Structures are given as C-alpha cells and as structure tokens.
Amino acid sequence: MTLTTAPDFSSAQFLGMAPFLRMSIAGVDFSSITQELIAQAQNNPDAPVLWMNLATAMMSLKHEALGLQIQEQALAMQRVYHWPARQTPKLRLLMLMVPGNLSANIPLDCLLENSDIDLLYYYVDANSDNPLTAPIPEHDVVMVAIGASDEQENVLLRLAFALCGWPKPVLNPPKSVSTSERHNASLLLQNVPGLLICPALHTSRQQLQAVAGGQKILAEIVEEHDFPIIVRPVGSHGGHGLQKIDSAAEVALYLAQTEGEAFFVSRFVDYSGSDGLFRKMRVVLIDGKPYACHMGVSAHWMIHYVNAGMYEDADKRAQEARFFNEFADFAERHRAALDAISQRTGLHYIGIDCAETQDGKLLIFEIDPAMVVHAMDDDVMFPNKQVHMLKVKNAMREMLFQRAGKALDDKE
C-alpha cells in the first residue's frame, strides 16, 4: 500500500490518530517509531504533545491501559492540542472531546487529511461541574466530537449547559449526541417505515445467570425475546464481548468468559443474502445527506472490515465497488429510514453501521458519530474508492464552512 507523505515523528507536532491508522492499514510495523516517541517523551518530560502522541501510538498498538495512563499524564499538563491544516488554513474547528480510548471521540483528522481546516482538540474536564476549564482557543465553529455511551452521559449534560448561548455555531450538540447511545437509539428509531433496529435492552449478570441455570426462561428477563439473541457488555465497543447465543447453555459459557455486571440483549436478525454471505455497510449522514464509506462481506454474521477478508479477496472488493457505484439507488430505497435517523437524532454528522434484511428493510446495528471514516485504502487495490470518499471529505468540509458562515471558494 502506498503511503502519503509521512509525518515527521521526530518533531514536537501533535500527530492525531491519522498517521497511526494509515500505518496500521498499510501493514507497517511502527513499533520502532513508538520507541522513538518513548525516547522523545522521556527526554522532554514537560512536553505534553509528545506524551499525547505516545499515548495514541500505544493505543494503536493495542496497549490500551498503558496508553490511557500516558494520555492522563499529558492532559494533566495541557488540555488543548492543535492539529494544523495541511494547506493554508481557512477555518478553525474546535472539537470538544473526552479523555478515553481511540473510539471515544470522532477521529476527524482521519477524514480531513491534507485539508485547509485547523483542528483544535479540546479535552473537556469530565470530572468538573464546568467541563470547559481550560482557556477556549479562537475558533469559527464547534463540534461536540464525543461518541455517545453510558459513561459520557453526565459530561454531555454538563456540556449542554456550558454551551448554552455559545457565540459560535455548535455541531452535534450534546443533547443530540446522547440520542445515539445504543439503548437510546434502539428506542428512538422504533416505528420507522422500512427501518429495523432491535431494542438493546438492559439486563444484569444475575438475571442471565438465572437463565443459564434454568431458574428462568429468557422471556422472563427480556420481554418477548427468545433465542437466538445478541449479548454484549454495557459500555463495550468494537465488537468486544459481542456474541450470538443460541441456548441457555451458551449463556452460561458466555458469562464464564465475559466480565461485566450489566449487559445489552438484542434479538438476532439473520441478514444473510441468497448466497449465504453477510454484508454490512458503513454510511455517514452529513447534514442529513447519506454517503457510502465501505461495505464488508463475510461468511460470518459479525463483520469487522479489517478481518472480513476484503484485502485478500478481489471478488469481495468488486462487490464493495458495486455498492459504491450503486449507492444512489441504495440511498433512494432507504430514504425514509435515513431521513428519520437524521431528523430524530438531530445530529449534523453521524456514522451508521447497517445492512439490508431479507425482506428489504434497512437493518441498523449501531449509530455513532465516533465511527472511524477514512480515505486511506490503497487506490490500486480499491481503484474507485477514493472517488467516493472524496465526496465524503468534500461534504464534511462544505458543511463546516457553511455552518461557520464562511465562503466555500474551492474544494480540496
């Protein structure tokens, strides 16, 4: 895979997530770069940018606990980080973020590589009554760049109060972000024609143990549910702890292997196609308009693009190319469902993981503004993907300029 111009890892520039994701996708071993970052940080212990870069590198290498400790150290010194535009800057976007792992916030730098937009990463103080404790840098528009989860409910409430009467436009306001939390979204999007989302219902380990032990049947703890079901720990992301369960015996095995005291339970929907394969699409809504980001094809119902075999299988890539090229038809088929997501959440920017059911409905797995969206795939292996991802990048840029009241004189 061809890399774009690599950032200078030896500098003190804030790197964000993009260069590490790009190397991961390209299969580049950046452990030596991480060692270089460790040396830099140790030689400059009072340089928070270096520690923040190291934190991102560690989490990108799956050393999440260590990465979070390093991030905490950086934030104790500094809460605002500047990701400079790669072209002459024309707009300053203030991104309000929370401390956390790589899925906690919108990784907008991954989409806006080589742009003319300055990104100001402002990590709010999640433990303070006033989350905006650091000085506010000059900016043109604000985005609440936080992904919705149970853990962020309180900080989003405090941010809603802090942003009342804000002098600049606010995108993804806190109240709207909360609508995309898994349980909230599963209730909010009920009774939409052509849309299917299975309610994510809370249950406890104790209740599931009662089912596993035969003291209760499933319908007694989760009304109107029967096997098969999908179970995941509350607060989990990226498929961690997510499992399809077909019987009470499998519940017992799942609990023995999975930590946590609170769980989401949902009905399993078989969304396989006539060929037995499953297809999961990632779509983003930008100011209410849908754009295609990718489609994963797999023989397994739980699809993650990185392990679906897309890089190894030319036929799967050809299917994804058809999805891109025929996306206008897809968007028209599901226009009412997509419009409802935009209108009911009130979000200016949101990611959607979805599929089509065997009877033609839009099946929603998850909505989340913090989904990773990027244009980093190799243009030789994915020859038409860059054309479609450029539409996403331009739409994002256009929305930011329009909301900021700035003239959009050209495109990237």
Describe this structure in words.
The chain is an alpha/beta fold. The chain has 14 helices and 14 strands. A hairpin with a 2-residue loop joins strand 11 (278-286) and strand 12. The longest helix has 20 residues, at 385-404. The two termini are 22 Å apart.
Quaternary state of the chains: single chain
Uncertain parts: none
* Count of DSSP-assigned helices: 14
Order of helices and strands: HHHHEEEEHEHHEEHHEEHEEEHHHEEH
Counting DSSP E segments of at least 2 residues, the number of strands comes to 14
Structural class: alpha/beta
> How many structural units, i.e. domains?
3
End-to-end C-alpha gap: 22 Å
Sum up the overall morphology in one term. globular
Radius of gyration (Å): 22 Å
Q: Which bin fits the share of residues in helices?
A: 25-40%
Overall average residue pLDDT:
94
Strand content: 15-25%
Main beta sheet: strand number and arrangement?
5 strands, mixed
Sheet with most strands: strand arrangement: 1-3-2-4-5
Short structural description:
Helix content is 35%, strand content 19%. With 412 residues, the chain is α/β, with parallel strands linked by helices.
Topology:
Layout: H1 18-26, H2 31-43, H3 48-60, H4 64-77, E1 80-83, E2 91-97, E3 117-123, E4 141-144, H5 153-162, E5 170-171, H6 174-179, H7 182-188, E6 195-196, E7 201-204, H8 205-212, H9 218-221, E8 229-233, E9 243-245, H10 248-257, E10 262-267, E11 278-286, E12 289-298, H11 314-325, H12 327-333, H13 335-345, E13 349-356, E14 362-368, H14 385-404
Parallel strand pairs: 2-3, 2-4, 4-5, 6-14
Antiparallel strand pairs: 1-3, 7-10, 8-9, 8-10, 11-12, 11-13, 13-14
Helix pairs in contact: 2-3, 3-4, 8-10
